[in-house]
Input
Amino acid sequence: MENKLLMAHQVAGYPEDETAIAAAEALIAGGTGILEVQLAFSDPSADGVAIQTACSTVLSKGYTVKQGLEYISKIRKLHPEIPVFLMTYGCLVYRPGVENFVKMAHDAGVSGLIVPDLPFDCDEGLTAACKKYGMHNIPVAAPSMTEERLNKMATAGFKYIYTALRAGITGTKTVTIPAPRVQIRRVIVSMLPRTTVSFVIQVESPQYGTSATVYATDQRT
Output
């Protein structure tokens, strides 16, 4: 697939910063082109057991948003060539004020924000704040979105779209056909070529990752 790029996910500070940095280094050495770093949150509503457990472990140590941003800053200093997209929830963004949070993320070296519970057209000023600081707000396209709403997102001027390929939380049983393929086709038809699309999948095997990539390639041609 032309211009394909692997984005890998981790929770900041899990299990602690030193091991997390080693994991990030391994991901980058393995070909990751973008790191998605999640701030630990007590109620990660879009996430399953694995990420919930990681968040709980980090929070049990008193790990803070400030420490999470410091972790990202360390990664960016080690690998300035690798963009970091910060995934978090609206509560953590809203608490210090949306613009203040975006500025803090910018100062840590974050390139884009993914906030699943802030809809793209009701985002409390997130997109405007990101534009002010030269960052990207990256909205989430869900399988449940209507064609009308998907098209509205596609024409709203976002450079990146974060696409869930199936309904439900992360970490549950992945089903390859037909639902994820339907979502790939819907999003590619609506978004490309004006928007870069990130397909969010739980890669259970190399074959699964390859099959998703090949199918997305077929839909572009």
Remarks:
- Residues 185 and 219 are 6 Å apart (CA to CA).
- The first helix runs from residue 17 to 29.
